[in-house]
Design brief:
The structure is a homodimer of 348-residue chains. With 348 residues, chain A is α+β, with helices and mostly antiparallel strands. Chain A contains 8 helices and 15 strands. A 5-stranded mixed β-sheet of chain A has the order 3-4-5-7-6. In chain A, strands 10-8-12-11 form a 4-stranded mixed β-sheet, sandwiched between helices. In chain A, strands 1-2 form a two-stranded antiparallel ribbon. Strand 11 of chain A pairs antiparallel with strand 15 of chain B. Chains A, B: One of its GO terms (molecular function) is metal ion binding.
């Protein structure tokens, strides 16, 4: 359940952050990717979210073995050349019988890495390990083809690094997929004169010239209500406060074949003078609901009309949206936002 | 505005799919990553969502140049060796003065790729192109270090491929980031005897032994309401129907330092006999709200208690959640789900 999940995440989140800070000291501020047990549980409970045919535990430092320096910390019979010992990669176990390779202490030469990776895989197989996590930073890109050659696959990447994974067991893999959704917002700003703030975007899409609500994506780790306020300010110069999240739309197969959630937020204007963002916005103005809905664009799409109906019903106080409530969990003191309809909860 | 955005996405979505199918024929079913103009607009409107200091247009086939075969389709003075012509990579323009390299026809040798990539970058710079998109499939991993060497950076990856980008202009880059959120669900299933369906998970986190609602992540392209029904069925064997999405929680910096949205769904049970998923669930049962909230676990966390309060208020008909409404846009006939509180909209 949500609360349970939140608690898991928060309690592990603290550990996560502590570990990240500690490890990052080893690597010029580049923190290793760690994952929280709850998220992992959360993810493995969704079987078909597996990456290809393969489920790995999420790396977690709960049982980390402290690595030695130099990318070599053990000797064992080399399966490739039994007559000589083989180097093993520094690594630590996660909480799911998986292994996290220490990116901070990989052998510097490609040959040494290839040899150590091969020997390490043999060792991990003997130990019946499951998911192997290998994070390679941009400056280690020459090691990517070697890892692929040894059977690793791409998992996810961001500027500066790529994460690869290897699933050992002869059973379906449950490595969690990388994040699946982008979070968009639309700001419905209506003033005391019953005028709605709308923009015309500079875009080459089919709706050029249509008056519409300001929209955008939230930033990394940004709250939905904050993102709506920011987008409206950036596109129109209008200051607002968040009132309610009145509806959201879920659509699939957009950018990168991923999915998209668009949250429609009702905002109260705190200013009236419009200053548009020349780079993105062609024009902006205050418009009546009748003029907005009067555009042919809206007469042709049910979703468009419904969303404006919902926003106007909210304005006319005959509709209840979700308000935002920031709650802190005692488990890690982490602030999280709960969106719900608050009006009647006092009755409980 | 949301409706506008939806329309953009849908109208481009159709084109996207058509192009994907066509391109995939060139490459053993591996479709090139294409992006829809709306998503791109949606993303660039969020400036701080830029990847590092770098914003590139989203590749889009609207103005694609048809590539010739063999990974070479033009000649121009080679900036590296002016005396001889240089090969250029097959590519096409996107709608934002960017370039999408054709992964299906890259030179097979690393040296030829390096030479063609260098010459192509010179050509694109002369043409004042902006964002360059280079998708490399797993079997092309030997080209990754070469692209990095030439100044490309990782953008995102999934099993089987990695996408790299290069930003040419001397201005802030607005390349959109990869998806930022995982979408989780929690199923609140309560029967006519006022008993709630709860589980004990097999996990090593701090909440071992706690009775909680079934939770999980939705699958790729799965609806929230469908994911809730599936998770409850997988974990407990109980069949349900979706009633309302009563609240959602937004938390940041979870798996991969990304964010997490957990939607709490009220479901109506259609069966009562529990069959647990032995791999994930330790135990499951029907429990009274008093016994659920009586656990110390819940007395220690405000978020946990609030969510159960909301769910019980919904059950007691003194709370209004969002219902799911599937709407089709005439622009591409694509089904999208709009979640909102429907009770009062008839008043409009």
């Amino acid at each position: 359940m949500a609360a349970h999940t939140a608690i898991c995440q928060w309690s592990f989140g603290q550990h996560f952050n502590q570990e990240t800070r500690r490890i990052s000291c080893n690597r010029d501020g580049n923190a290793l990717e760690l994952f929280r047990s709850s998220s992992w549980k959360h993810i493995i409970s969704s079987k078909t979210q597996c990456v290809k045919q393969c489920t790995s535990p999420m790396p977690f430092l709960g049982t980390r073995n402290v690595p030695k320096k130099g990318g070599i910390h053990a000797l064992l019979p080399n399966t490739m050349s039994p007559s000589m010992p083989a180097e093993l990669l520094d690594s630590w176990d996660d909480d799911y019988n998986g292994v996290v390779v220490d990116s901070a202490s990989l052998p510097s030469s490609a040959n040494a890495f290839a040899s150590a990776l091969r020997a390490s895989l043999s060792s991990w197989k003997l130990k019946e390990k499951k998911g192997i996590w290998l994070k390679l930073f941009q400056e280690q890109s020459d090691l990517v083809p070697i890892a692929i050659q040894e059977g690793f696959d791409y998992h996810h990447a961001e500027p500066g690094y790529i994460m690869l994974t290897y699933w050992i067991p002869d059973e379906p893999c449950t490595i969690p997929s990388s994040p699946s959704h982008q979070i968009g917002i639309a700001g419905f700003v209506i003033n005391d004169n019953r005028e709605i703030l709308v923009v015309k975007e500079k875009c080459s899409c089919s709706c050029v010239g249509v008056w519409k609500l300001p929209t955008g994506y939230i930033n990394k780790s940004e709250e939905i209500f904050s993102g709506a306020i920011r987008e409206v300010k950036e596109e129109t110069g209008i200051d607002t406060t968040f009132l309610e999240m009145v509806a959201f739309r879920h659509v699939h197969r957009v950018a990168f074949e991923k999915s998209d959630l668009l949250f429609v937020c009702m905002l109260k204007p705190l200013s009236s003078e419009i200053t548009i963002d020349e780079k993105e916005i062609q024009d902006a103005k205050w418009i009546t609901p009748e003029e907005l809905l009067g555009q042919q664009f809206y007469s042709e799409d049910e979703m468009s009309r419904k969303l404006i109906e919902i926003c106007m019903a909210t304005y006319e106080n005959c509709y209840n949206g979700y308000t935002a409530h920031q709650l802190i969990s005692k488990f890690d003191g982490k602030l999280s936002v709960l969106y719900y309809y608050n009006n009647n909860l006092n009755m409980i």
